[in-house]
Specification:
Layout (H helix, E strand, L loop, with lengths): L6 E5 L5 E5 L6 H31 L4 H4 L1 H24 L1 H17 L1 H7 L2 H27 L7 H9 L2 H16 L7 H10 L2 H10 L2 H19 L15 H4 L9 H22 L1 H9 L3 H25 L5 H21 L3 H14 L2 H10 L6 H10 L3 H16 L2 H4 L1 H15 L6 H5 L1
Helix pairs in contact: 1-6, 1-8, 1-10, 3-4, 3-6, 3-19, 3-20, 4-6, 4-11, 5-6, 6-19, 7-15, 7-18, 8-15, 13-18, 13-19, 13-20, 13-22, 14-15, 14-17, 15-17, 16-17, 16-18, 16-22
Length: 442
């Protein structure tokens, strides 16, 4: 199948459709190599959802403390996204992507000594290194794909590339469920016997060691992919020139003259908080209200990620007929209603409602990203890094949900946090993304 020949029918803000290719034929190889990165970073993102449950068991920690897995992870995004943009502004997208893949691989390999030592803090450091690499990948890949063709088609092109991210997310959840979860869930009486016999701590250490193999394999694959990218010639895209003048690369302060961009950063902060928080505690929600074992709950998580993937591909198609911002706003309103059901009717009805939110959240990240970058010109790389920095929402909202759950003794009540997030995204889709942009394009 010739991806470059896919017909493009999109809608500008004036509602007029345009038709053209997604990207030039000669850019097929770099497009495929970069699109694969969306798959790769989906794996550790959703392995975290399994790690939270696994670490609650192996380190005997609370939901709030286990939520620090996401805090360490998304702080890596927050702190490294701007340096990533500066590296790519100076040396180009290819250098930034390779740097990200090397950091990604190093972080996964750190899981081996972390598991041997058996220190929770060591794992948090390894997750920070992984996320530092992913900050380079997301800052570079999203911006690169967005600019690899006609600006009018950027939302649909990025949604197409991002559609491969759910496959990584599904793989991460399945890998964690099959290879990290042991399926052993001991009752209090059994724990007491093991503590008396001195076998409790060895059992916990064995549970911790189960994380090593998946991460070592993942790191090796990522390292080999970096070598492939090194050997591939990348095209120049908008803003990549041999000169390094500030006027060609853009200036940070200029970004604040674009209200639609500033609101995109806020919307992305809320979106990632909603997504990460929902998936991080989805297993716990299933177990709390349907009393299913951890492996069954893990398969439910994999299922909701399948719905996410279906939503991403279908959204790419729907955008041929519906403006991306309107589609996103409509999906956000639907998610507000679904989460409200999950809060009001915890149990099987609530489970399926929360399950379905993944389908409707699927288009939000790439659509917010592409809408926010419109009209930025030479500020695109820096702007892309700030939108990626907004991923820190996952570090903020996940422990917040854990705290709400502990305080109210209700995982359902914690879902009110993503409900508020979707309400803001609905505003951005219907109105915020247009503020100031029409004036720039006149």
């Amino acid at each position: 199948m010739d991806l470059s020949a896919l017909p493009e029918t999109n809608h500008a803000f004036d509602g007029q459709p345009t038709s053209h290719r997604l990207f030039a034929r000669e850019n097929l190889v770099p497009f495929v190599l970069v699109t694969a990165l969306f798959f790769f970073w989906g794996i550790p993102n959703n392995l975290n959802d399994v790690l939270i449950r696994q670490f609650m068991k192996s380190f005997e920690i609370t939901r709030f403390k286990a939520g620090l897995v996401q805090s360490a992870f998304y702080m890596g995004y927050f702190l490294l996204s701007m340096p990533a943009a500066l590296v790519m502004r100076r040396f180009g997208y290819k250098t930034g992507l390779v740097t990200g893949l090397f950091l990604f691989a190093c972080g996964t390999w750190l899981f081996w000594p972390a598991a041997i030592v058996g220190q929770y803090g060591f794992f948090l450091m390894a997750l920070f290194v992984i996320a530092s690499g992913l900050a380079f990948l997301e800052t570079g890949a999203n911006s690169f794909v967005s600019q690899l063709g006609d600006p009018v088609s950027s939302e649909r092109r990025l949604n197409f590339a991002q559609a491969f991210n759910p496959f990584g997310a599904i793989s991460g959840a399945l890998i964690g469920t099959v290879f990290i979860f042991s399926g052993i869930e001991l009752k209090p009486a059994q724990v007491a016997v093991m503590k008396t016999s001195g076998t409790w701590q060895p059992y916990l250490h064995h549970e911790t060691l189960r994380v090593i193999t998946p991460y070592l394999v993942l790191g090796s694959v990522v390292f080999l992919w970096a070598l492939l990218i090194i050997r591939t010639r990348f095209p120049k895209v908008a803003g990549e020139t041999t000169s390094h003048a500030a006027t060609e690369h853009g200036r940070f302060r200029d970004l604040f003259r674009h209200p639609h961009f500033v609101l995109a950063v806020i919307a992305q902060f809320f979106y990632v908080g909603a997504q990460v928080g929902t998936w991080s505690y989805f297993i716990q929600y299933v177990q709390d209200y349907t009393h299913q074992p951890e492996k069954v709950a893990g398969y439910f998580l994999s299922g909701t990620l399948v719905a996410f993937g279906v939503g991403r591909f279908s959204a790419t198609w729907f955008m041929k007929f519906v403006r991306p911002n309107v589609l996103m706003g409509s999906y956000s309103v639907i998610n507000v209603l679904l989460v409200a059901i999950g809060v009001e009717f915890p149990g099987w009805i609530g489970l399926w409602a929360i399950f379905l939110t993944s389908f409707f959240m699927s288009l939000m990240f790439p659509t917010i990203f592409a809408l926010g970058l419109k009209g930025l010109g030479p500020n695109t790389k820096i702007g892309g890094s700030l939108i990626v920095m907004a991923i820190v929402g996952g570090a903020v909202f996940t422990p917040l949900m854990g705290l709400v759950s502990q305080t109210t003794h209700s995982m359902a009540m914690a879902m009110l946090v993503p409900l508020v997030c979707y309400a803001f995204i609905a505003y951005y889709g219907f109105a915020g993304c247009r503020i100031g942009l029409a004036r720039q394009t006149e």
